[in-house]
Amino acid sequence: MPKTIRELADELKVSKQTIQYHYQRLPTKNQQKDSQGTNMISLTAERIIRDKVAKPLVAKDQQTGSKKATKISKENNDLVATLRREVADLKSQRDKQLATKDRQIDHLTKLVDQQQQLQLATVADNRRLKDHVQKLSGQLTQKTNDNLSTGNDLFNIQDKKSKIAKQKIVKSGSNKDGIHTNRAIKRWWKFW
């Protein structure tokens, strides 16, 4: 069924001028007019025009697509460059942190070594002092044994004093039954 230029232009989504241009370039046997004098496009003419219009559209889409692809690839390249810079920054930060941690580990290792050396010195001093105390205690026990023999004499003296104190018990007079009771001498200052 023949179409008008406007119908074909709307169908192909191009302007009427584009269809008119290609219609005029057709051979005269493919150009038709209706009774009112308007140009009508036959099926063969429609195929020819579609082929001519579709090729530039495809090329135009490809060109637009290539522009879009170029723009997208440029954006991707920018993104890749940004990501590479960030990765490089992160690597440098990581390297700095690792170097700091290595210095801290070295410092702590030195501190632990010093602690162990001080501990060994303290243990050696303690052993030396313990040996010295044992020597002194050995000397002290010898003196104590000597003093114990002297101390036994003192104990005997104190024992004699307590016997004398017991003898100071005074016999008091007899009570009603005639029983004599022994009473110790009580002094007033001993009550406090």
Provide a descriptive summary of the structure in words.
- This protein is mostly helical and 192 residues long.
- The chain has a 3-stranded antiparallel sheet with strand order 1-3-2.
- It has helices spanning 5-12, 16-24, 43-167; strands at residues 3-4, 31-33, 39-41, 170-174, 180-183.
**Average pLDDT taken over every residue:** 78
What separation lies between the terminal Cα atoms? 148 Å
What structural class should be given to the helix and strand makeup?
mainly alpha
Radius of gyration, whole Å: 65 Å
What's the helical proportion of residues? over 70%
Total number of helices? 3
Strand line-up in the sheet with most strands: 1-3-2
Give the low-pLDDT segments.
169-174
Q: What is the approximate shape?
A: rod-shaped
Major β-sheet, in short? 3 strands, antiparallel
Instruction: Encode the helix/strand succession as letters.
Output: EHHEEHEE
> What is the total tally of β strands?
5
Q: How large is the share of residues in beta strands?
A: 5-15%
